[in-house]
Amino acid sequence: MEWNNSIDTQTELWLNPEINPSCQADDFSTINNNDVELAAQRLDRFAPLLAQLFPELQPAQGRIESPLLPIQPPKGLAQVQGQFWVKADHQLAIAGSIKARGGIHEVLEFVESLALQQQLLDQATPYTVLLEPAAQAVLQQYEVVVGSTGNLGLSIGIISAVLGLQVTVHMSVEARQWKKDYLRHYGVNVIEHQGDYAKAVAVGRAQAEANPYAHFVDDERSTSLFVGYAVAASRLQAQLVAEKIQVDASHPLFVYLPCGVGGAPGGVVYGLKAIYGPHVHCFFVEPQQSSCFAVQLQHLEQPEISIYEVGQTNQTAADGLAVPVASQLAIAAMRTRLSGVALVHEDVLLADLYQLHHQDSIQVEPSAAAACAGVRALFNTVAGQTYIQQHGLAPYMAQANHILWTTGGALVPAKEYEQWLAQGELRSTQLFNA
Ligand SMILES: *Cc1c(COP(=O)(O)O)cnc(C)c1O
After folding, report:
1. How many other CB atoms sit within 10 Å of the CB of residue 288?
2. Does ligand 1 lie within 6 Å of residue 259's CB atom?
3. What is the pTM of this model?
4. Distance (Å, rounded) from C-alpha 120 to C-alpha 117?
5. 342 by DSSP, 3-state: which?
6. Which of 15, 161, 328, 352 would give a disulfide with 186, using CB separation of 3.0 to 4.6 Å?
Protein backbone atom coordinates (compact mmCIF):
# COMPACT_ATOMS: atom_id res chain seq x y z
CA MET A 1 0.00 0.00 0.00
CA GLU A 2 1.73 3.14 -1.17
CA TRP A 3 -1.16 5.36 -0.28
CA ASN A 4 -1.68 7.37 2.87
CA ASN A 5 -5.39 7.78 3.46
CA SER A 6 -5.00 11.01 5.38
CA ILE A 7 -4.80 12.71 2.00
CA ASP A 8 -8.45 11.96 1.36
CA THR A 9 -9.36 14.64 3.83
CA GLN A 10 -7.16 17.00 1.80
CA THR A 11 -8.93 16.54 -1.52
CA GLU A 12 -12.44 17.75 -2.05
CA LEU A 13 -14.60 17.81 -5.12
CA TRP A 14 -17.60 20.04 -5.68
CA LEU A 15 -19.91 18.97 -8.51
CA ASN A 16 -21.66 21.61 -10.56
CA PRO A 17 -25.43 20.96 -10.35
CA GLU A 18 -26.14 23.15 -13.41
CA ILE A 19 -24.00 21.18 -15.84
CA ASN A 20 -25.67 20.45 -19.14
CA PRO A 21 -23.53 17.56 -20.39
CA SER A 22 -24.36 18.03 -24.05
CA CYS A 23 -23.72 21.76 -23.95
CA GLN A 24 -22.19 22.44 -27.33
CA ALA A 25 -24.35 25.14 -28.78
CA ASP A 26 -23.70 28.87 -28.81
CA ASP A 27 -25.99 29.41 -25.86
CA PHE A 28 -23.77 31.96 -24.22
CA SER A 29 -24.31 35.38 -25.68
CA THR A 30 -21.02 37.17 -24.98
CA ILE A 31 -18.94 35.20 -27.49
CA ASN A 32 -19.57 32.42 -29.96
CA ASN A 33 -17.60 29.71 -31.70
CA ASN A 34 -16.92 31.94 -34.67
CA ASP A 35 -15.07 34.41 -32.41
CA VAL A 36 -12.74 31.57 -31.43
CA GLU A 37 -12.14 30.76 -35.09
CA LEU A 38 -11.37 34.43 -35.79
CA ALA A 39 -8.84 34.41 -32.94
CA ALA A 40 -7.16 31.33 -34.40
CA GLN A 41 -6.92 33.06 -37.78
CA ARG A 42 -5.50 36.19 -36.18
CA LEU A 43 -2.77 34.18 -34.46
CA ASP A 44 -1.94 32.63 -37.84
CA ARG A 45 -1.70 36.05 -39.49
CA PHE A 46 0.80 37.16 -36.85
CA ALA A 47 2.81 33.93 -36.91
CA PRO A 48 5.51 35.15 -39.36
CA LEU A 49 6.01 38.28 -37.26
CA LEU A 50 6.28 36.23 -34.06
CA ALA A 51 8.78 33.86 -35.68
CA GLN A 52 10.91 36.88 -36.58
CA LEU A 53 10.73 38.33 -33.07
CA PHE A 54 11.26 35.04 -31.20
CA PRO A 55 13.78 32.63 -32.76
CA GLU A 56 12.48 29.89 -30.41
CA LEU A 57 9.26 29.95 -32.48
CA GLN A 58 10.94 29.35 -35.82
CA PRO A 59 10.61 25.55 -35.82
CA ALA A 60 6.84 25.97 -35.40
CA GLN A 61 6.72 28.85 -37.92
CA GLY A 62 5.54 31.31 -35.31
CA ARG A 63 2.79 29.21 -33.78
CA ILE A 64 2.78 29.23 -29.97
CA GLU A 65 1.77 25.71 -28.98
CA SER A 66 2.68 23.11 -26.38
CA PRO A 67 3.04 19.33 -26.77
CA LEU A 68 0.73 16.67 -25.38
CA LEU A 69 2.94 14.35 -23.33
CA PRO A 70 2.23 10.88 -21.92
CA ILE A 71 2.84 10.66 -18.16
CA GLN A 72 2.66 8.15 -15.32
CA PRO A 73 -0.57 8.25 -13.29
CA PRO A 74 -0.27 10.76 -10.44
CA LYS A 75 0.58 9.27 -7.04
CA GLY A 76 -2.10 8.53 -4.49
CA LEU A 77 -4.93 7.38 -6.75
CA ALA A 78 -7.34 4.97 -5.06
CA GLN A 79 -7.51 3.18 -8.41
CA VAL A 80 -5.82 3.74 -11.75
CA GLN A 81 -7.91 3.53 -14.90
CA GLY A 82 -7.19 4.99 -18.32
CA GLN A 83 -4.28 6.85 -19.87
CA PHE A 84 -2.68 9.97 -18.44
CA TRP A 85 -1.35 12.98 -20.35
CA VAL A 86 0.02 16.40 -19.69
CA LYS A 87 -0.93 19.33 -21.89
CA ALA A 88 2.39 21.06 -21.44
CA ASP A 89 1.52 24.76 -21.36
CA HIS A 90 4.28 25.10 -18.76
CA GLN A 91 6.56 25.01 -21.83
CA LEU A 92 4.72 27.61 -23.91
CA ALA A 93 7.12 29.95 -25.66
CA ILE A 94 7.59 33.62 -24.73
CA ALA A 95 5.70 33.64 -21.41
CA GLY A 96 6.27 30.11 -20.04
CA SER A 97 2.61 29.74 -19.09
CA ILE A 98 -0.94 29.39 -20.37
CA LYS A 99 -1.04 33.22 -20.40
CA ALA A 100 0.91 33.09 -23.64
CA ARG A 101 -2.35 32.09 -25.33
CA GLY A 102 -4.87 34.71 -24.25
CA GLY A 103 -2.48 37.50 -23.31
CA ILE A 104 -0.57 37.52 -26.56
CA HIS A 105 -3.79 37.21 -28.56
CA GLU A 106 -5.25 40.31 -26.91
CA VAL A 107 -2.17 42.46 -27.54
CA LEU A 108 -2.03 41.28 -31.17
CA GLU A 109 -5.71 42.12 -31.62
CA PHE A 110 -5.09 45.60 -30.21
CA VAL A 111 -2.08 46.14 -32.48
CA GLU A 112 -3.91 44.82 -35.52
CA SER A 113 -6.89 47.10 -35.02
CA LEU A 114 -4.58 50.11 -34.48
CA ALA A 115 -2.56 49.25 -37.55
CA LEU A 116 -5.66 48.92 -39.74
CA GLN A 117 -7.14 52.12 -38.38
CA GLN A 118 -3.88 54.01 -39.01
CA GLN A 119 -3.45 52.35 -42.40
CA LEU A 120 -0.17 50.73 -41.51
CA LEU A 121 -1.53 47.45 -42.85
CA ASP A 122 -3.82 46.26 -45.57
CA GLN A 123 -4.83 42.75 -46.60
CA ALA A 124 -1.69 42.27 -48.69
CA THR A 125 1.00 43.66 -46.36
CA PRO A 126 3.09 41.15 -44.44
CA TYR A 127 2.71 41.87 -40.74
CA THR A 128 6.47 42.16 -40.32
CA VAL A 129 6.02 45.72 -41.62
CA LEU A 130 4.89 46.56 -38.09
CA LEU A 131 8.51 46.38 -36.95
CA GLU A 132 9.63 49.06 -39.40
CA PRO A 133 10.25 52.64 -38.22
CA ALA A 134 7.07 54.19 -39.67
CA ALA A 135 4.83 51.70 -37.87
CA GLN A 136 6.92 51.78 -34.70
CA ALA A 137 6.56 55.57 -34.53
CA VAL A 138 2.81 55.07 -34.31
CA LEU A 139 2.79 52.07 -31.97
CA GLN A 140 5.08 53.67 -29.41
CA GLN A 141 2.47 56.35 -28.72
CA TYR A 142 0.17 53.70 -27.28
CA GLU A 143 0.24 52.02 -23.92
CA VAL A 144 -0.98 48.63 -22.73
CA VAL A 145 -1.94 48.35 -19.04
CA VAL A 146 -2.65 45.20 -17.03
CA GLY A 147 -3.08 43.98 -13.44
CA SER A 148 -1.57 40.61 -12.58
CA THR A 149 -0.40 38.14 -9.96
CA GLY A 150 2.65 37.67 -12.22
CA ASN A 151 2.14 35.47 -15.25
CA LEU A 152 -0.36 37.60 -17.15
CA GLY A 153 1.98 40.51 -16.58
CA LEU A 154 4.86 38.50 -18.05
CA SER A 155 2.88 37.60 -21.14
CA ILE A 156 1.40 41.06 -21.79
CA GLY A 157 4.59 42.87 -20.79
CA ILE A 158 6.93 40.91 -23.04
CA ILE A 159 4.78 40.91 -26.18
CA SER A 160 3.87 44.59 -25.80
CA ALA A 161 7.48 45.64 -25.25
CA VAL A 162 8.86 43.74 -28.24
CA LEU A 163 6.14 45.21 -30.47
CA GLY A 164 7.26 48.70 -29.44
CA LEU A 165 4.29 49.63 -27.28
CA GLN A 166 4.58 51.28 -23.88
CA VAL A 167 3.43 48.89 -21.19
CA THR A 168 2.60 49.12 -17.48
CA VAL A 169 2.05 46.05 -15.31
CA HIS A 170 0.36 46.44 -11.92
CA MET A 171 1.60 43.55 -9.79
CA SER A 172 -0.33 42.25 -6.79
CA VAL A 173 1.43 41.42 -3.54
CA GLU A 174 2.06 37.74 -4.36
CA ALA A 175 3.97 38.42 -7.59
CA ARG A 176 7.46 36.93 -7.36
CA GLN A 177 10.42 39.27 -7.45
CA TRP A 178 12.00 37.52 -10.43
CA LYS A 179 8.94 38.20 -12.57
CA LYS A 180 9.22 41.93 -11.84
CA ASP A 181 12.96 41.88 -12.60
CA TYR A 182 12.40 39.94 -15.80
CA LEU A 183 9.87 42.50 -17.04
CA ARG A 184 11.95 45.52 -16.09
CA HIS A 185 14.71 44.00 -18.15
CA TYR A 186 12.38 44.27 -21.17
CA GLY A 187 11.72 47.94 -20.36
CA VAL A 188 8.30 47.27 -18.87
CA ASN A 189 6.99 49.73 -16.28
CA VAL A 190 6.26 47.52 -13.24
CA ILE A 191 4.19 48.97 -10.39
CA GLU A 192 4.17 46.97 -7.16
CA HIS A 193 1.08 46.89 -5.00
CA GLN A 194 0.69 45.77 -1.41
CA GLY A 195 -2.87 44.65 -2.13
CA ASP A 196 -4.30 41.56 -3.76
CA TYR A 197 -4.98 40.81 -7.39
CA ALA A 198 -8.46 42.40 -7.48
CA LYS A 199 -6.92 45.68 -6.21
CA ALA A 200 -4.08 45.62 -8.76
CA VAL A 201 -6.62 45.15 -11.53
CA ALA A 202 -8.77 48.01 -10.24
CA VAL A 203 -5.80 50.43 -10.17
CA GLY A 204 -4.77 49.40 -13.68
CA ARG A 205 -8.30 49.86 -14.99
CA ALA A 206 -8.51 53.37 -13.51
CA GLN A 207 -5.10 54.34 -14.89
CA ALA A 208 -6.00 53.18 -18.39
CA GLU A 209 -9.34 54.97 -18.35
CA ALA A 210 -7.53 58.25 -17.79
CA ASN A 211 -5.34 57.85 -20.90
CA PRO A 212 -6.96 57.86 -24.37
CA TYR A 213 -3.87 56.11 -25.76
CA ALA A 214 -4.10 53.26 -23.29
CA HIS A 215 -5.56 49.80 -23.73
CA PHE A 216 -6.45 47.95 -20.55
CA VAL A 217 -6.21 44.16 -20.62
CA ASP A 218 -9.08 43.32 -18.30
CA ASP A 219 -8.49 39.84 -16.94
CA GLU A 220 -11.88 39.88 -15.21
CA ARG A 221 -13.92 40.82 -18.30
CA SER A 222 -11.96 40.55 -21.55
CA THR A 223 -13.46 38.51 -24.36
CA SER A 224 -10.26 38.86 -26.41
CA LEU A 225 -8.28 37.03 -23.72
CA PHE A 226 -11.00 34.42 -23.42
CA VAL A 227 -11.16 33.54 -27.11
CA GLY A 228 -7.37 33.49 -27.28
CA TYR A 229 -7.36 30.82 -24.57
CA ALA A 230 -10.13 28.93 -26.36
CA VAL A 231 -7.95 28.44 -29.46
CA ALA A 232 -6.16 25.75 -27.44
CA ALA A 233 -9.10 23.41 -28.00
CA SER A 234 -8.79 22.95 -31.75
CA ARG A 235 -5.01 22.66 -31.36
CA LEU A 236 -5.48 19.91 -28.78
CA GLN A 237 -8.01 18.19 -31.03
CA ALA A 238 -5.35 17.92 -33.76
CA GLN A 239 -2.91 16.43 -31.23
CA LEU A 240 -5.46 13.87 -30.03
CA VAL A 241 -6.09 12.81 -33.61
CA ALA A 242 -2.35 12.52 -34.21
CA GLU A 243 -2.03 10.30 -31.11
CA LYS A 244 -5.06 8.25 -32.27
CA ILE A 245 -6.85 9.08 -29.03
CA GLN A 246 -10.58 8.57 -29.43
CA VAL A 247 -13.07 10.83 -27.72
CA ASP A 248 -16.65 9.56 -27.88
CA ALA A 249 -19.37 7.98 -25.73
CA SER A 250 -17.22 4.95 -24.88
CA HIS A 251 -13.93 6.92 -24.65
CA PRO A 252 -14.50 9.75 -22.22
CA LEU A 253 -11.96 12.56 -22.01
CA PHE A 254 -11.28 14.14 -18.61
CA VAL A 255 -9.48 17.46 -18.42
CA TYR A 256 -8.14 19.06 -15.23
CA LEU A 257 -7.25 22.76 -15.27
CA PRO A 258 -5.81 24.99 -12.53
CA CYS A 259 -8.07 28.01 -12.02
CA GLY A 260 -7.40 31.55 -10.82
CA VAL A 261 -9.90 34.13 -12.04
CA GLY A 262 -11.23 31.47 -14.42
CA GLY A 263 -10.52 33.09 -17.78
CA ALA A 264 -7.72 30.84 -19.01
CA PRO A 265 -9.24 27.50 -18.01
CA GLY A 266 -12.70 28.82 -18.91
CA GLY A 267 -11.61 29.66 -22.44
CA VAL A 268 -10.08 26.21 -22.89
CA VAL A 269 -13.21 24.48 -21.58
CA TYR A 270 -15.48 26.63 -23.74
CA GLY A 271 -13.49 25.52 -26.78
CA LEU A 272 -13.40 21.85 -25.75
CA LYS A 273 -17.13 21.66 -25.07
CA ALA A 274 -17.81 23.14 -28.52
CA ILE A 275 -15.83 20.28 -30.06
CA TYR A 276 -16.60 17.30 -27.83
CA GLY A 277 -19.89 18.18 -26.10
CA PRO A 278 -20.91 15.45 -23.62
CA HIS A 279 -17.77 13.36 -24.17
CA VAL A 280 -15.40 15.79 -22.44
CA HIS A 281 -15.56 16.22 -18.66
CA CYS A 282 -13.81 19.34 -17.43
CA PHE A 283 -12.77 20.04 -13.85
CA PHE A 284 -11.10 23.14 -12.46
CA VAL A 285 -8.68 22.88 -9.55
CA GLU A 286 -8.28 25.66 -6.98
CA PRO A 287 -6.31 26.06 -3.75
CA GLN A 288 -8.48 25.57 -0.68
CA GLN A 289 -7.61 29.08 0.51
CA SER A 290 -8.29 30.75 -2.88
CA SER A 291 -11.25 28.94 -4.36
CA CYS A 292 -13.05 31.95 -5.84
CA PHE A 293 -14.56 30.02 -8.74
CA ALA A 294 -16.14 27.32 -6.59
CA VAL A 295 -17.33 29.96 -4.12
CA GLN A 296 -18.97 32.00 -6.89
CA LEU A 297 -20.66 28.97 -8.45
CA GLN A 298 -21.98 28.04 -5.02
CA HIS A 299 -23.34 31.60 -4.52
CA LEU A 300 -24.77 32.54 -7.89
CA GLU A 301 -27.20 34.91 -6.17
CA GLN A 302 -24.23 36.99 -4.98
CA PRO A 303 -22.21 38.16 -8.03
CA GLU A 304 -18.59 39.14 -7.30
CA ILE A 305 -18.57 37.38 -3.96
CA SER A 306 -15.05 37.26 -2.56
CA ILE A 307 -13.30 34.36 -0.85
CA TYR A 308 -12.74 36.52 2.24
CA GLU A 309 -16.50 36.54 2.80
CA VAL A 310 -16.38 32.79 3.33
CA GLY A 311 -13.29 32.90 5.53
CA GLN A 312 -10.55 31.99 3.05
CA THR A 313 -7.16 33.72 3.31
CA ASN A 314 -5.79 33.84 -0.27
CA GLN A 315 -2.51 32.45 1.12
CA THR A 316 -1.13 29.87 -1.28
CA ALA A 317 2.13 28.79 -2.91
CA ALA A 318 0.15 28.75 -6.16
CA ASP A 319 0.67 32.45 -6.86
CA GLY A 320 -1.01 32.15 -10.29
CA LEU A 321 -4.21 31.02 -8.59
CA ALA A 322 -4.24 33.52 -5.71
CA VAL A 323 -7.36 35.37 -6.82
CA PRO A 324 -10.16 36.51 -4.47
CA VAL A 325 -13.01 37.10 -6.95
CA ALA A 326 -13.89 35.05 -10.06
CA SER A 327 -14.36 36.48 -13.56
CA GLN A 328 -18.08 36.92 -14.17
CA LEU A 329 -17.49 36.26 -17.87
CA ALA A 330 -15.89 32.92 -17.07
CA ILE A 331 -18.66 32.08 -14.60
CA ALA A 332 -21.34 32.76 -17.23
CA ALA A 333 -19.53 30.55 -19.73
CA MET A 334 -18.86 27.73 -17.24
CA ARG A 335 -22.26 27.52 -15.51
CA THR A 336 -23.52 24.84 -17.87
CA ARG A 337 -20.16 23.53 -19.13
CA LEU A 338 -18.01 22.82 -16.09
CA SER A 339 -18.30 19.42 -14.41
CA GLY A 340 -16.93 20.54 -11.07
CA VAL A 341 -14.14 22.11 -9.05
CA ALA A 342 -11.53 20.20 -7.05
CA LEU A 343 -9.99 21.93 -4.04
CA VAL A 344 -6.37 21.23 -3.30
CA HIS A 345 -4.50 21.53 -0.02
CA GLU A 346 -1.17 23.40 0.01
CA ASP A 347 0.93 20.40 1.04
CA VAL A 348 -0.40 18.42 -1.90
CA LEU A 349 0.59 21.08 -4.45
CA LEU A 350 4.26 20.76 -3.66
CA ALA A 351 4.16 16.97 -3.35
CA ASP A 352 2.70 16.82 -6.86
CA LEU A 353 5.25 19.33 -8.14
CA TYR A 354 7.94 16.98 -6.88
CA GLN A 355 6.30 13.88 -8.37
CA LEU A 356 5.91 15.45 -11.82
CA HIS A 357 9.64 16.06 -11.72
CA HIS A 358 10.50 12.68 -10.27
CA GLN A 359 8.20 10.47 -12.36
CA ASP A 360 7.98 12.40 -15.60
CA SER A 361 10.89 14.91 -15.69
CA ILE A 362 8.39 17.74 -15.97
CA GLN A 363 9.19 21.06 -14.32
CA VAL A 364 6.16 23.11 -13.31
CA GLU A 365 5.31 25.87 -10.84
CA PRO A 366 2.96 25.12 -7.89
CA SER A 367 -0.08 26.57 -9.69
CA ALA A 368 0.37 24.08 -12.51
CA ALA A 369 0.92 21.13 -10.17
CA ALA A 370 -2.63 21.70 -8.96
CA ALA A 371 -3.88 19.78 -12.02
CA CYS A 372 -2.76 16.48 -10.43
CA ALA A 373 -5.18 16.91 -7.54
CA GLY A 374 -8.04 17.03 -10.03
CA VAL A 375 -7.46 13.40 -10.99
CA ARG A 376 -7.28 12.38 -7.35
CA ALA A 377 -10.54 14.21 -6.67
CA LEU A 378 -12.28 12.17 -9.36
CA PHE A 379 -10.95 8.77 -8.28
CA ASN A 380 -10.75 9.19 -4.51
CA THR A 381 -13.81 11.12 -3.42
CA VAL A 382 -17.44 10.12 -3.02
CA ALA A 383 -18.37 13.07 -5.24
CA GLY A 384 -16.04 11.80 -7.96
CA GLN A 385 -17.58 8.34 -7.88
CA THR A 386 -21.04 9.93 -7.93
CA TYR A 387 -20.09 11.87 -11.05
CA ILE A 388 -18.92 8.71 -12.81
CA GLN A 389 -22.16 6.90 -11.89
CA GLN A 390 -24.48 9.78 -12.76
CA HIS A 391 -22.99 10.16 -16.20
CA GLY A 392 -22.95 6.43 -16.89
CA LEU A 393 -19.17 6.39 -17.26
CA ALA A 394 -18.23 3.41 -15.08
CA PRO A 395 -18.10 0.86 -17.95
CA TYR A 396 -15.77 3.14 -19.94
CA MET A 397 -13.27 4.28 -17.34
CA ALA A 398 -10.62 1.82 -18.53
CA GLN A 399 -10.73 3.51 -21.96
CA ALA A 400 -10.72 7.04 -20.58
CA ASN A 401 -8.02 9.62 -21.18
CA HIS A 402 -7.05 12.13 -18.52
CA ILE A 403 -5.34 15.38 -19.47
CA LEU A 404 -3.61 17.37 -16.74
CA TRP A 405 -3.18 20.92 -17.97
CA THR A 406 0.19 22.07 -16.61
CA THR A 407 -0.25 25.81 -16.88
CA GLY A 408 3.14 27.31 -16.06
CA GLY A 409 6.76 26.90 -15.07
CA ALA A 410 9.27 27.33 -17.89
CA LEU A 411 10.61 30.69 -16.79
CA VAL A 412 10.96 29.92 -13.07
CA PRO A 413 14.58 30.49 -11.94
CA ALA A 414 16.42 27.31 -10.92
CA LYS A 415 17.00 28.52 -7.35
CA GLU A 416 13.33 29.11 -6.73
CA TYR A 417 12.37 25.78 -8.31
CA GLU A 418 14.88 23.83 -6.23
CA GLN A 419 13.35 25.16 -3.03
CA TRP A 420 9.91 23.95 -4.07
CA LEU A 421 11.36 20.64 -5.10
CA ALA A 422 13.03 20.10 -1.73
CA GLN A 423 9.85 20.95 0.16
CA GLY A 424 7.83 18.84 -2.26
CA GLU A 425 10.05 15.81 -1.75
CA LEU A 426 9.39 15.92 1.99
CA ARG A 427 5.66 16.31 1.51
CA SER A 428 5.62 13.53 -1.05
CA THR A 429 7.23 11.18 1.44
CA GLN A 430 4.66 12.12 4.06
CA LEU A 431 1.64 11.92 1.78
CA PHE A 432 2.47 9.26 -0.75
CA ASN A 433 5.28 7.31 0.93
CA ALA A 434 7.12 8.03 -2.32
C1 LIG B 1 -3.11 32.45 -14.65
C2 LIG B 1 -2.76 31.09 -14.36
C3 LIG B 1 -3.73 30.09 -14.16
C4 LIG B 1 -5.21 30.36 -14.17
O5 LIG B 1 -5.70 31.26 -15.12
P6 LIG B 1 -6.92 32.20 -14.72
O7 LIG B 1 -7.31 32.86 -15.99
O8 LIG B 1 -6.43 33.16 -13.70
O9 LIG B 1 -7.97 31.31 -14.16
C10 LIG B 1 -3.29 28.81 -13.91
N11 LIG B 1 -1.99 28.51 -13.84
C12 LIG B 1 -1.03 29.43 -14.03
C13 LIG B 1 0.40 29.02 -13.94
C14 LIG B 1 -1.38 30.74 -14.29
O15 LIG B 1 -0.43 31.65 -14.46
Report:
1. 17
2. yes
3. 0.96
4. 8
5. strand
6. 161
